[in-house]
Amino acid sequence: MTSPAKPPRFKRILLKLSGEALMGEGKYGISPKTLQQIAEEIHEVIELGVEVGVVIGGGNIFRGVSASTEGMDRASADYMGMLATVINALALQDALEKLSVFTRVQSAIDMQQLAEPYIRRRAVRHLEKGRVVIFAAGTGNPYFTTDTAASLRAMEIHADVILKATKVDGIYSADPVKDPAATRYKTLSYLDVLKKNLKVMDSTAISLCMDNELPIIVFDLNRTGNILKVVLGEDVGTLVGDLKPQKAQEG
């Protein structure tokens, strides 16, 4: 890969992927082609020296909230959803390791044969050694989404930013698929997101980020190269909150 002309904007990031992002053009499960594309983009970022943590949802396999609305006990449904995130995490780990990217999966639910237990200090140490850390099983508690897990883990590892990968190129005033007049926001405050009820992340996740001044960049994962562009500080997607002044990293 040709080295970019400028250094990365961030030193440590938390990439939030929805489970649906792994489906590609399918309606269920994991698309190997899409998985490979995501792994290749993460690989590009790692080669810049950026430390990467990842949180993946499980909606491509099982959605706890949807199941609970159909009569299943919410806690049981959420635990099933957490297990779906572990499946996705192991799939991404395999794709990354095929590219010779050292990767660790840490699970909030103990399952020693498959993943390390989540230990914050160990996760930070892995990141410092250049390993991608994939945080699986959400927070380990029902009634919390993987968006909340992403906010929590990002703060625990002292990430500079949450990169929220979606199917659209930012946050819109309305669903751009349903409303052609919808406009894209370039920047938003946390309160704007909450007051306008914009479906970026759930309110718990947004409130956590607001209380800890953790910025969020929402961008389109389907456009190849967007993860790298965001990391390099290019004008991609919608920024929620404020970015801290960039530290000199040239040295």
Number of domains: 1
Q: Which class of secondary structure composition applies to the elements?
A: alpha/beta
Query: Given the structure, what is the number of helices?
Result: 8
The count of strands amounts to: 11
Overall geometric form: globular
In the CATH scheme, the class would be: Alpha Beta
Quote the CATH topology. Answer: Carbamate kinase
CATH architecture: 3-Layer(aba) Sandwich
Q: Give the low-confidence spans.
A: none
In terms of DSSP E residues, the strand content is 15-25%
How do the SSEs run, as a string of H and E?
Answer: EHEHHEEHEHEEEEHHEHE
Distance between the termini: 21 Å
| Helix content range | 25-40%
Task: Output the radius of gyration.
Answer: 17 Å
Q: State the CATH superfamily name.
A: Acetylglutamate kinase-like
Spatial order of the strands forming the largest sheet = 4-3-5-2-1-6-10-11-9
Average pLDDT, rounded to a whole number, is 92
For the biggest sheet, the summary is: 9 strands, mixed
Description:
With 251 residues, the chain is an alpha/beta fold. It has a single domain (14-240), classed as 3-Layer(aba) Sandwich (Carbamate kinase), CATH 3.40.1160. Helices cover 35% and strands 18% of the residues. The chain has 8 helices and 11 strands. A 9-stranded mixed beta sheet has the order 4-3-5-2-1-6-10-11-9, with helices on both faces. It has a two-stranded antiparallel ribbon with strand order 7-8. The protein is globular and about 50 Å long. It starts with 11 loop residues before the first strand and ends in an 11-residue tail after the last strand. The mean pLDDT is 92.
